[in-house]
Amino acid sequence: MNSTAVAVIIPLANEAISFDLFIGKLTDTINTMHSTSVYLVTDKASTDETPDLCRELAQQDSRFIHVDAPKNRHVVDAYLAGYRAAHVNRHAFYIEMDAGLSHLPAQLPQFLHFLNMKYDCVFGSRYIEGGSVSNSTLGRQFLSKAGTLLSNVLLGTRLRDMTSGYQAFSDEVVAMMIKYPFRSKAHFYQTEVRYLLRHKKQLEIPIQYSSPSKSIQWSSITNALQVLGYYWFKRLTFSSKQI
Question: Distance between CA atoms of 9 and 95, rounded to whole angstroms?
Fold first, then answer.
């Protein structure tokens, strides 16, 4: 394994409009990073030309790998498909982010810096000093903050942001993640990851997040409450799980 190799995992769905702008900024950043590969994950959720754009980019620049995952059932499958594809190449570090400039590519080196300081997990946080949220509705902000508060109370975690999707892990952690049967089907996956990794050496760093302003489906909220209840019950019965 190349100890300097970095994998960036990015699920994409219907990102054609912002694709060139995002990839341009991402390329500018990885040009400054040593030995970085970007895994672009698409599946049947995309109804525009996003998969074609990813495929063409991968043919033009070998640092970009297109992961076509048509059997994905939901967004969590997309994240894990990216991790599994990257783990085959045994990178030292893995950074997960969203497309569409909701997460800033320029902040990738910050995650890498702390991974190199021997942290197992580095989580982006919107709610610590230096972090921020823009273009977000009050409803989305309420759900995010309330979800963090409720998760910390019920699960005993202590992070300031339990729902951010900008996060990074060591190879050892990813090797365990890809084998774990996650219960989440939507964005509660981020909280589930933080809970399961609560005993790993971890750190929150500030990020500037720009919301894509997409509505949150009730099915996602329902799944989040079900998974939260599952782990809360496990904690009460002293059968808490961890990766």
Answer: 6
Task: List per-residue pLDDT tens for the chain, 243 residues long.
Answer: 555 599 999 999 999 999 999 999 999 999 999 899 999 999 999 999 999 999 999 999 999 999 999 888 999 999 999 999 999 999 999 999 999 999 999 999 999 999 999 999 999 999 999 999 998 788 788 888 999 999 999 999 999 999 999 999 999 999 999 999 999 999 899 999 999 999 999 999 999 999 876 667 788 889 999 999 999 999 999 877 777
Distance of CA 12 to the CA centre of its chain: 12
Question: For 6-236, which CATH superfamily applies?
Answer: Spore Coat Polysaccharide Biosynthesis Protein SpsA; Chain A (3.90.550.10)
Cα separation of 153 and 138, whole Å?
Answer: 22
Q: What is the distance between the alpha carbons of residues 99 and 212, in angstroms, rounded to a whole number?
A: 10
For helices 189-196 and 218-236, angle between their N-to-C axes, nearest 10 degrees: 20
For the chain, the structural domain boundaries read: 6-236
**Crossing angle of helices 50-60/16-30, nearest 10°?**
30
